[in-house]
């Protein structure tokens, strides 16, 4: 995965925030990467409505 790629949210691990749940199946653009949990990699995704949040790599799939 690379910055600028289009991705789809394919699943969610543990988060239950309604704002994040609404993004399941939606597409967005990778904006940056960040270290999470001290060792994991988070992928920051921005959606068309300007909502931005991070996901683990296995929660996303690259499209087109």
The order of strands across the largest sheet is 4-3-2-1-5
| Portion in helices | under 10%
- Helix tally? 1
Radius of gyration: 11 Å
Profile the largest sheet: 5 strands, antiparallel
What is the mean predicted local confidence, pLDDT? 92
Structural class: mainly beta
Low-confidence stretches: none
Please tally the β strands and state the result.
Answer: 5
Pfam families: Tsr0524-like
Protein name: DUF2862 domain-containing protein
Question: Your description of this structure?
Answer:
Helix content is 6%, strand content 47%. With 64 residues, the protein is mainly beta. The protein has one domain (6-62). It has a five-stranded antiparallel β-sheet, with no helix packed on it. A hairpin with a 4-residue loop joins β3 and β4. The chain starts with 5 loop residues before the first strand and ends with a strand. This is DUF2862 domain-containing protein. It holds the Pfam family Tsr0524-like. It comes from Thermocoleostomius sinensis A174.
